[in-house]
Write a sequence for this structure.
């Protein structure tokens, strides 16, 4: 087993209900109460929920109406991204006190490689405890952590003792840990894949491990080799301080649903302008333009076109997006529009998303 698992010490730090916790931190009247960040009682989608709200089934990405039905006492709070970024910056400074190998995944989570660290502490478990305490002392928020030999296992472990806890999976424990793990808890296995695995009789890591590489590739394509390896503790992805940009995107959710393509073009013009600014800022361009459409019934559709050359100009982006918009008739009124540019000409390593308006 030692030959299969790289001798690294990885910590995955995940803030506990970050957006909601920040709101409760700044407003004592919200502490101990079920709150939802984003949305409203009559419209929108929940972006984040406090642990008090999660007890009632309130979670991110569900309709605000459903959330309120599940939790009648739910309090909706408007998001404050500048504040979240401010606190996230403070937390990341703490990470860099321990190692330069920090890979942020979002404002509220990151991987740290502490195999060789600035504190000279050989115990990743003790370092994780210290980092979590430093975060609490500095910003007043709790964090959970997973510690193991690779990013995949550390990511899963960080969810085990939430909130305000941590779990270490030692090298000699990795295989048994993965064998006993429910397949739905495997990082990278979503709802659709989970259902497909259930149909194939795969409910745990052990059952996944029993399948051959040919079998998994036959049923899951390129992902088959990933599943084959990770359940055996093989995941050699390094913690990198910067992540490759795969897509630059901008989107807007509207107060009132749009039913006319004319109005949609007006909104797309604004979105394309914001996207152009972001592209220029990062000095990137791309070949594939994707139009994202979310309808009033919350169904979502994407339409894409790949150009033979790189583009970043607003006018050209809008021209292509307009073509995609009129490609087929709208299925319903539209609540959200977005434009993404991928297939980029860059080696920058940070996923960029511009959210023009968060109040769904």
């Amino acid at each position: 087993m030692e030959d299969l698992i790289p001798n690294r010490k990885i910590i995955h730090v995940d803030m506990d209900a970050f957006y909601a916790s920040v709101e409760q931190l700044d407003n004592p009247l919200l502490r101990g109460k079920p709150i939802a960040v984003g949305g409203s009682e009559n419209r929108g989608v929940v972006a984040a929920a406090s642990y008090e709200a999660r007890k009632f089934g309130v979670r991110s990405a569900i309709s605000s109406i459903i959330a309120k039905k599940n939790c009648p006492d739910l309090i909706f709070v408007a998001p404050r991204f500048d504040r979240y970024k401010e606190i996230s910056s403070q937390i990341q400074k703490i990470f860099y006190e321990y190692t330069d190998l920090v890979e942020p995944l979002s404002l509220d989570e990151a991987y740290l490689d502490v195999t060789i660290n600035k504190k000279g502490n050989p115990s990743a478990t003790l370092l994780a405890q210290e980092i979590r305490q430093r975060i609490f002392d500095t910003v007043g928020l709790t964090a959970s952590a997973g510690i193991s030999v690779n990013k995949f296992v550390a990511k899963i472990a960080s969810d085990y003792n939430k909130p305000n806890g941590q779990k270490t999976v030692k090298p000699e424990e990795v295989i048994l840990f993965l064998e006993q793990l429910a397949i739905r808890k495997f990082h990278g296995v979503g709802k659709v894949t989970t259902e497909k695995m259930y149909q194939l009789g795969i409910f745990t890591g052990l059952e996944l491990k029993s399948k051959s590489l040919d079998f998994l590739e036959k049923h899951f394509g390129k992902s088959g080799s990933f599943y084959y390896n990770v359940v055996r503790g093989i995941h050699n992805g390094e913690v990198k301080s910067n992540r490759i940009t795969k897509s630059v995107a901008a989107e807007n959710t509207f107060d009132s649903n749009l039913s006319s393509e004319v109005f949609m073009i007006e909104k797309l013009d604004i979105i394309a302008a914001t996207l152009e600014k972001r592209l220029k800022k990062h000095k990137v361009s791309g070949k594939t333009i994707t139009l994202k459409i979310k309808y009033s019934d919350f169904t979502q559709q994407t339409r894409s076109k790949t150009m033979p050359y790189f583009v970043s100009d607003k006018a050209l982006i809008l021209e292509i997006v307009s073509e995609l918009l009129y490609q087929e008739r709208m299925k319903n009124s539209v609540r959200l529009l977005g434009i993404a540019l991928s297939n980029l000409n860059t080696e920058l390593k940070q996923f960029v998303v511009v959210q023009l308006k968060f109040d769904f």
